[in-house]
Design brief:
two-stranded parallel sheet; about 260 residues; alpha/beta; 3-stranded parallel beta sheet; TIM Barrel
């Protein structure tokens, strides 16, 4: 689970809580090489959902950052690989984010475009009607831009529960990527797909470990954070995390409003 690729470092106006997930071009190139050496097949989320599970890796990007399209897509195309890019509708056209033309170009290059919510709100804090709108309005926009079906989604902010799954299913989606780390198998529910977050501190050794299915440290950390998330609720947990991180390291907390 990537978010963005940057030339060397994230733009100075990107808050620290988001910038931590912006990987440099050189680091991304090294990680591509690690995945290549693993011998695993790289497929899209849609291909994985159709049953291409054995020895596969799905490379995903969340949000729709500009560097994903300007830097990562050409590098992936050179490698001969697809990726799935989950794009938030209302981020399109904003500073540091892609626009509709970038979506079309990425799709033409073999990338899958997926749903990442209409506004990037925490869906557990929404009503049923709002959850449906978050999935459907984003899906409909992407389909209108691309002229093709959009069937895969990921949920913003690591927010997941049964009501969110129900809304995704009712919106005509085939799978939902989560922020829960780990590896998937034929037994994994397609609406609870595990993904491993790649940060600017993720090493080649880490990616080698992930490709070997060894994710115990990430799973343990995720489990440890479940208690504060349940106590605070995902909306409040996300807000508190961003305030603490961004006040400590600088940047605005207004880029993502949970």
């Amino acid at each position: 689970m990537y978010h963005d690729v940057c030339a060397s470092s994230p733009a100075s106006d990107i808050p620290a809580s988001a910038a931590a997930y912006h990987v440099s071009r050189d680091r991304f190139a090294a990680q591509i090489d690690v995945i290549r050496r693993s011998g695993r097949r790289v497929v899209t989320a849609a291909e994985y959902a159709r049953g291409m599970k054995e020895d596969s890796v799905v490379i995903t990007f969340d949000d729709g950052w500009r560097g994903t399209f300007d830097l990562a897509v050409p590098m992936l195309r050179q490698a001969g690989w697809p990726a799935t890019i989950f794009v938030t509708r209302d981020f399109l056209g904003r500073k540091n984010f892609a626009d509709d033309s970038a979506l079309r170009e990425a799709a033409a290059a073999g990338m899958e475009i997926g749903v990442h919510g209409t506004t990037h709100r925490m869906l557990s804090s929404c009503t049923r009607e709002e959850r449906l709108w978050e999935f459907r309005a984003c899906k409909e926009h992407h389909e209108a831009v691309l002229g093709q079906a959009v069937v895969s989604a990921s949920q913003p902010g690591g927010d997941w529960n049964a009501e969110i799954v129900a809304a995704a299913r009712a919106s005509g989606l085939n799978s939902l990527g989560t922020s829960r780390p780990g590896c998937n198998s034929a037994r994994t529910d397609l609406f609870e797909l595990r993904r491993i977050a790649i940060k600017n501190t993720t090493s080649e050794a880490d990616v080698t470990r992930f490709c070997s299915g060894r994710t115990a440290p990430e799973v343990a950390r995720w489990a440890m954070l479940q208690l504060p998330r349940r106590l605070l609720g995902m909306k409040n947990y996300s807000r508190l995390r961003r305030i603490l991180v961004d006040e400590k390291k600088g940047g605005s907390v207004e880029v993502f409003k949970p």
